[in-house]
From TrEMBL:
GO molecular function terms attached to this record: alpha-1,4-glucan glucosyltransferase (ADP-glucose donor) activity; alpha-1,4-glucan glucosyltransferase (UDP-glucose donor) activity
Similarity-based family: Belongs to the glycosyltransferase 1 family. Bacterial/plant glycogen synthase subfamily.
Keywords, in A-Z order: Glycogen biosynthesis, Glycosyltransferase, Transferase
Database matches in InterPro entries: Glyco_trans_1, GS/SS, Starch_synth_cat_dom
Pathway noted in the entry: Glycan biosynthesis; glycogen biosynthesis
NCBIfam families on file: glgA, PRK00654.1-2
Record's protein name: Glycogen synthase
Segments forming domain Glycosyl transferase family: 289-442
Residues of the Starch synthase catalytic domain: 6-237
Binding site for ADP-alpha-D-glucose: K17
């Protein structure tokens, strides 16, 4: 049975990306196509997006969408069927998708993403002639009002799914905006968008959706607890079996060390010696001392959630043990400063690039020996999947999707030849260093390390299995 699905997302790779949400929104539609599910993706028309799509077809219009006119432009790019919400009064501005050029939230984000959701709901109910989806998938808080608008409508509607990529970001705004959302008074309730006296976008979507998914089975369990539920654990426990955890995959055509145009030398699990050329190139790019010790890498937002304060504090101890550290990312200024100070103390042992560079991240995965992901919580994580694909051994904390996707190199797993990484816990400084010491012992055994790299590179990190789970869920949902 063929199905049509409307995906609503605030960012989509390769048009615009700030994190893993964009990768999923860009790759999952392509994977679902193999299961006879046709996806159209609605996203905001940020300046970078409008420049890339060029001209397209005006499929529907809104005379007044939160303060100005808007048009939905249909186009295709990289196999994606896109619906771009061109609303200059909301999206045509400098800065990023969510923050100003100065790093502060756009003050009207509440309207910018309510507009995305309202447009999504209108399209779901036939605003575009000839398109009436069977399913609407709303990604994170920025799209979570879509099922709310549909739920309060008296018209027939498709089934709705909210996919949570990170429960920490909920879209909570003062009650004063409620009157501007165009929702009925009945929506201001505990069963609507009211959330401790504020308007809760994600909270409303979680309650209104027919199904809630999140991005790994372990994270689905963690968010049912007070420690991991970020205040929403009670609501989520109430959803019962309507909450499902499905681990993310990656686009293995984009992330492929045998064909990647960004890296110095192509290689495979059967030709790992060639990988050394990428390590030498990475040393040169970051001005690192050329030696045989391991390079431990960070490619991440530099935040407390990601546990990167632990790595910053441990940098001197790590290099004292004979390793080198490469850092690519940006985030909290204090953590950025710690890494820059570590580089100043060890200029040929610690390399730092503040800012995000997609192409550079490929070169880091191809050249570093291990990728450090010591997150305090991690819904799924994609960085460790890239590491597996490139033989860059994941060094991860035992949380969320990290625990679901990496097999620890304990004695049993290493002896059986199935280990793919190093897992440590809890995410504290002493546990981190104990894990680093264990990783360095493993690295000192070249044959064992190479065996772990081969197992990692042979792991299935594609969307194949997860897309099938999504497809089966969607079909079951439409049969209800």
């Amino acid at each position: 049975m063929s199905l049509s699905l409307l995906s609503v997302a605030s960012e989509v790779f390769p048009l615009i990306k700030t994190g893993g949400l964009a990768d999923v929104a860009g790759a999952l539609p392509l994977a679902l196509a193999e299961h006879d599910i046709a996806v159209r993706t609605l996203m905001p028309g940020y300046p970078d997006v409008m420049r890339q799509i060029g001209s397209g077809d005006a499929l529907c219009r809104f005379d007044d969408l939160f303060g100005g006119p808007a048009v939905v432009i249909g186009t295709t790019l990289g196999g994606l069927d896109l619906l771009v919400l061109d609303a200059p009064h909301l999206y045509d501005r400098s800065g990023g998708p969510y923050v100003t050029a100065g790093g502060f939230d756009h003050p009207d984000n509440w309207a910018r993403f309510a507009a995305l959701s309202k447009a999504g709901a209108a399209i779901a109910q036939g605003a575009i002639p000839g398109f009436l989806p069977d399913i609407v998938q709303a990604h994170d808080w920025q799209a979570a009002l879509t099922p709310v608008y549909l739920a309060v409508s008296n018209r027939p509607r498709p089934k709705t799914v909210v996919t949570v990529h990170n429960l920490a970001f909920q879209g909570s705004y003062p009650s004063s905006i409620f009157a501007s959302l165009g929702l009925p008074d009945t929506a201001w309730s505990i069963e609507g968008v009211e959330y401790y006296g504020n308007v809760g976008y994600l909270k409303g979507g979680l309650h209104a959706a027919d199904l809630v998914t999140t991005v790994s089975p372990t994270y689905a369990d963690e968010i049912l607890t007070p420690a991991g539920g970020m205040g929403l654990d009670g609501l989520l426990r109430g959803r019962g079996d309507r909450l499902v955890g499905i681990v993310n995959g990656i686009d293995t055509s984009v992330w492929d060390p045998q064909t990647d145009p960004a890296i110095a030398c192509h290689y495979s699990s059967r030709a790992l010696k060639a990988r050394t050329h990428n390590k030498r190139a990475l040393e040169g790019e970051f001005g690192l001392r050329r030696e045989d010790g391991p390079i431990l890498a960070v490619v991440s937002r530099l935040t407390w959630q990601k546990g990167l304060d632990l790595v910053a504090e441990a940098c001197d101890a790590i290099v004292a043990r004979g390793a080198r550290v490469v850092v690519v990312g940006s985030g909290e200024s204090a953590i950025e400063g710690q890494f820059l100070a570590a580089h100043a103390r060890n200029p040929d042992r610690v390399g730092v690039r503040i800012g995000y560079d997609e192409t550079l991240s490929h070169r880091v995965q191809a050249g570093a020996d291990a990728i450090l992901i010591p997150s305090r919580f991690e819904p799924c994580g994609l960085t460790q999947l890239y590491g597996l694909r490139y033989g860059c051994i994941p060094f991860v904390s035992k949380v969320g999707g990290l625990a679901d996707t990496v097999i620890d190199a304990n004695h049993a797993a290493a002896s059986a030849g199935v280990a793919t990484g190093v897992i440590f816990g809890p995410p504290t400084g002493p546990a981190l260093m104990a894990g680093v010491d264990r990783a360095l012992r493993l690295y000192a055994d070249p044959k064992g390390w190479r065996s772990m790299q081969v197992s990692a590179m042979n792991a299935d990190v594609s969307w194949r299995a997860s897309a099938r789970i999504y497809a089966d869920l969607f079909r079951d949902l439409t049969r209800e």
